[in-house]
């Protein structure tokens, strides 16, 4: 056996247990099983054949390596395929977020723990019910799953269940899932009984309040951060103590913040969130936002308020239930993002009162919106009854920064008011207004009409003498509203019907030669304050300067505050004008010609604003990165988003702009009223400032001095690519210009009625020369005689048709908005 073994290496068939000789040698300290094989001893010589090394790249190894290579390749391919499939699946996944109230299950504290048996059991029941609803619906093919995210108590009793529903459409290719249909399937599945006359019905055996069902399309990112594993900085707070302030603070200087703060108070109370400061990238909520919801999940229709800009002003918001969600999103932090806030548990407030007013006329008390000075929540209803002791006394209401007007068919945006059975709509103003009710008994009801929380309201009340509504020292407006004498003709509509401003054109300064040269309006300032223009006649001559004015290079005196980029050399060497480059007269003279097509390059501040690639509105260049336009161009969800907008500068024929920039930010005036077109102004910040090299083709237009009065009869120009006729259905390819005349404000008011001091009229009474659809937001440019500079006097806003006789165009009066413009574009100063 041994010989055989030593002579030749055994064939595999020869290997038997009995053929193998094993020698066991004990080595201290070594484990026997790990011993190396010993060489055969004695006669047994090493086999030459076995000693001969086989080459590594033999066929067998090559096959093994090749198989291994193929295997690795298959694993990589499979992983990539899986990634691709899961990615396309998620692209076609549709997320819905909602809540409803189950009335016949009592809340248990264990429901707050997501891992508890109690939570899991109720969540499973709800998920099964929702599964059944959708798997038996028309959307069954696409239904994937429902996930219960929260089960909470609420002030109406029972359980409030918050959930997500996911649908997957394999080849959606940009199709969207109908939100109303998904919600309708759920609502229609609730069997209500007409006999019971309650909103509670049976949803597959669960008692669900039909009125509590809310279901909206949601975001995949919210889905992941509320129920997924990437919950980031999300937190849950349960507040039990009434007198405590629960802090809510988070900040970061890099990375991202995608936080969901769920706030829950004890049953029967509400939550007041007070925001002390927010740091965000101000981009109109494109990436960064802080949103407050009246729910525990980001359900769009329950949003109470959204903030898109950093602020340090204390603001507070109140929920309508014992819960609130605060989401803070800042996905690309560059400097600092965060929030400093706190929340409190507060009792529900009733806003109803009966007030017996004093017999001495005058304001004596205040009423306010619920939870004043907090923003008041939607769905409010307040009633106040006022009674005067004498039938000769009526009730006066002084609204702070707010006004009410007769309700139109359209409905109200900021509260509707019922006063002694007459309906009014409220809107925010920048001044106070007084409303008088000539009755000793007045019923006032306020109902919130905004879908979001609204700014707090404060109203002073008191009695007034019905037969003599105005105190002696005040001026009586035509509708019986009173204002102090000093507040007449000041560009502010103190009267309901704005009659205090109607007569302003008749008040002219006393153009007595003796007062020329004194500080005041009658200086050489480019405005013809006197009818005959006497105040501007001797402007090249030296006029002695007072200490409130200073001497400038052409020996004309101006007040110091006038030293800014206004085309007037206020400083001795005109230095304040050096850095300003709003358009001077040089290149502009040749443009004063009639005709429809403008000369190319004649209006270098004219901008065409394109929405999703099509010309939509006009605008004017006022600096290297800011444009001025009309607020109504950006009214609505999609239009207020800057992403689909591009600004086309230095353009003559549509589509051939010298410079195109996306829009970084749209600032719509906070008082813009979409019903009356009051405050129709918006600022646009370009993503890319136009380059200096284009300064021959692109030039900013000058902003008028604050409060500058316009002179009726003055000739100005309106420009744009809008329609050439009212009946046309598309705009002009070539930039059009039309000469129009500034129209007396009284005439404008008598034509249209609802003309505020933020508006001015321009046109020709015969019609013909006018702006039209598509010109909106574009400039009304007036050339200042004193220095030839072009001034942006108006912004195309609205009008009755286009070019109709006796219906001039209505423009936003830019001089009213100078402080507002400077707030956002301080470099213009
Ligand atoms: C518009 O719809 C529009 N005639 C703009 C100006 C005028 C009328 C309509 C003034 O954009």
UniProtKB/TrEMBL annotation:
Classification via Pfam families: CUB (PF00431), Ldl_recept_a (PF00057), SEA (PF01390), Trypsin (PF00089)
BP GO annotations: proteolysis
Domain SEA: 92-220
Coiled-coil region list: none
Domain Peptidase S1 as annotated: residue spans: 592-826
Keyword RNA-binding carried by entry: no
Gene Ontology molecular function: serine-type endopeptidase activity
Transmembrane segments: 63-85
Ranges for domain CUB: 233-346, 351-428
Keyword NADP: no
SUPFAM superfamilies: LDL receptor-like module, SEA domain, Spermadhesin, CUB domain, Trypsin-like serine proteases
Paired cysteines (S-S): 470-482, 477-495, 489-504, 545-557, 565-580
InterPro entries: CUB_dom (IPR000859), LDL_receptor-like_sf (IPR036055), LDLR_class-A_CS (IPR023415), LDrepeatLR_classA_rpt (IPR002172), Peptidase_S1_PA (IPR009003), Peptidase_S1_PA_chymotrypsin (IPR043504), Peptidase_S1A (IPR001314), SEA_dom (IPR000082)
GO cellular component terms given for this protein: plasma membrane
Membrane topology: Single-pass type II membrane protein
Cell compartment(s), UniProt: Cell membrane
Keywords from the named record: Cell membrane, Disulfide bond, Glycoprotein, Hydrolase, Membrane, Protease, Repeat, Serine protease, Signal-anchor, Transmembrane, Transmembrane helix, Zymogen
Summary of subunit composition and partner proteins: Forms a heterodimer with SERPINA5.
Function comment: Serine protease which preferentially hydrolyzes peptides with Arg at the P1 position.
Protein name: Transmembrane protease serine 7
Native source species: Cavia porcellus (Guinea pig)
Lineage of producing organism: Eukaryota, Metazoa, Chordata, Craniata, Vertebrata
Gene that specifies this protein: TMPRSS7
